[in-house]
Amino acid sequence: MLFFSEVKYLGCYVDDSSRMLDVHNQSNQMTLEMCKQSCHKHRYLGLQNHNHCFCGKSLGDSNRYQKKKENECLQPCGGNLSQTCGGFWRNSVYEFIPVTVPTTKMTTPGHSTVKTTDMNTSRQSTVTTTEMTTNIQSSVTTTEILWLGQSEVTTTHMKTYRQSPVTTIQITEPGASEVTTFETTPEVTSVQPLDCLCPCFSIAKGKWDFLRGMNLTLDQLREVMKPELDLMKKELSVNKSNTTRMRRSKISAPDDRVSATSVGYVGIVFICLITLLIVFIDIIGCFASKFKRQL
């Protein structure tokens, strides 16, 4: 079963205005993780000049976009200074590598079902999930997460028919003592059926569900989910200059209402009457002056 993809660094490649990779994303907080999220539907990704991320299905013309020396791709990423985001017209190019998750399922008729899933992430972590269900009696789900050289977290959730469910969290860190936490939910003797207030059939398991039983602090959760939160913040941000209200304030629009037309006509008539009155007064003044001279 294909679960997700990792990336493999290919090297520093030259780029130009025609673009080596055709899909472009930009952020002042750019990181490798953010670029991976944006390019997960493509085969290649490239980081360029601090804050640019490019995606593509191929690397383009090999004679045009050639590999360069690594010292031409030394600019740090805007969102993580420890990562490299290419250089000026230079791409730090990565290739997605699919990770296969083998699943083993064993069923004993009328007795139990055991399902084991192993997921290995190179240089990062190993996740093993075991689900065992006994017919009508109980179910046990065990999740083991091992960060290489860091710590090991084992979460066991046991639910027995007509008894209280028990959750055990075991955390082991190198050079430190082992911490085990028990969480027991009180037994509920009677449960009133609840109406589903949302379209439950459309709710799927999220990719962050495995974090629920890890007892992480808020700061640790923010660190794990930072790339995706930054991407959501970028997608939800609105540029005021592109809003309809701002555009309307820069232009004038015709007013076809009858009241507006009537006001315009009244204004024109009033201005004409004032003009005629002034001209009439001047004519009378001219006749009066001529009459006085004749006398």
Automatic annotation (TrEMBL):
It is found in: Membrane. Residues 6-97 form the WSC domain. The keyword Transmembrane applies. The chain crosses the membrane at residues 263-288. It is a single-pass membrane protein. GO terms for cellular component: plasma membrane. It comes from the Eukaryota. Keywords: Glycoprotein, Membrane, Signal, Transmembrane, Transmembrane helix. The keyword Secreted does not apply. This is WSC domain-containing protein.
